[in-house]
Known about the structure:
- This protein has helices spanning 7-25, 47-63, 70-80, 109-122, 139-149, 156-170, 183-186, 190-207, and strands at 33-35, 38-40, 128-130, 133-136.
- The chain has 208 residues and is mainly α.
- The strands form two sheets. It has a two-stranded antiparallel ribbon. A two-stranded antiparallel sheet has the order 3-4.
- Strand 1 (33-35) and strand 2 form a beta hairpin.
- The protein starts with 6 loop residues before the first helix and ends with a helix.
Amino acid sequence: MPKGISKAQFRLRKIAEFLDESNRIEGIDYEPKLFHEALVYPEGIGILHIDNSVRAFHLVEDFCKEPMTIDRVLQVHAAQMKDVLPSAGSFRTKQVYVGAHTPPKAEVVPMLMDQWVQDFNDSDVETVTFLGTKNIKSALDLHYAFEHIHPFIDGNGRVGRLLWAWDQLRHDRNVIPLLDVYAPLVGNNFYDKRREYYRQLQNYHEKR
């Protein structure tokens, strides 16, 4: 932890970096500021998305010591997509396409998400199952699995990263920007890390 900064300030700074990065991945750019141990977000472009991200993160903080449930996933999505998406807080009901990835059919999303929630809650176990195969062993794998299901019309990336943060919080870790995971591979440039993140996601899709 840097000298001259309290634990509370350091924690808030990492949360601000995490939320900043998650929105930047989606093309929503802003600069959160730390002021008297509180996060301050400027008015301007994307402010609705930013406010929603903070609201959704607070929900994750409230929930993180409790079991993951479908209802809690839906609440996080509803908070993140409030006043942005009419179907906020509901699973998608039609087929979507995400670049080269074709997510599972809408009618199987509830079943897949039931399994995902079980896997999340069981992920402290050395090896858990996903759709009958022993392949989820880490929070990052769980994140990839969530993005593979793509349970919502929109907001999947930000919600998936919030649920990744949930996993960090339930283990009493500081939340760090998810793209930092890829820095040892590609360095600290945001765009290089984002490119690697998408490459790894696509690799996951192709193996399913």
